[in-house]
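SAMPLE LOG
Freezer: B-3
Tube label: C17
Construct: single chain, 125 aa
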Amino acid sequence: QVQLVESGGGLVQAGGSLRLSCAASGRTFSRYAMAWFRQAPGKEREFVATINWSGGNTYYADSVKGRFTISRDNAKNAVYLQMNRLKPEATGVYYCAQDATPYRLGYSLDRFGSWGQGTQVTVSS
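STRUCTURE (predicted):
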């Protein structure tokens, strides 16, 4: 029943940076892994990054490894995605998601039960 709200998207030139935020409601935020997915126009939603319940373990898609950093602040019920050295192929709607099972590091679409509305990221050439 968690509600997720993303923010921080916008238009940025290639090579620039953006920081996305996701605010979550509910009392059980800290029990679940959180992840970011993205969807380009006409394409399937794809995995970007995930972080476990405590923030001690992370996993990234190869396409963003070394440039994106996922983090969380359980005291604030928030998860973040710092995106550096952005490329045009990063353009899309970015979604925050909560794993459907507690204490699991999820990274596949079917394992996430709650989704935000998304925030648009556009990287110009």
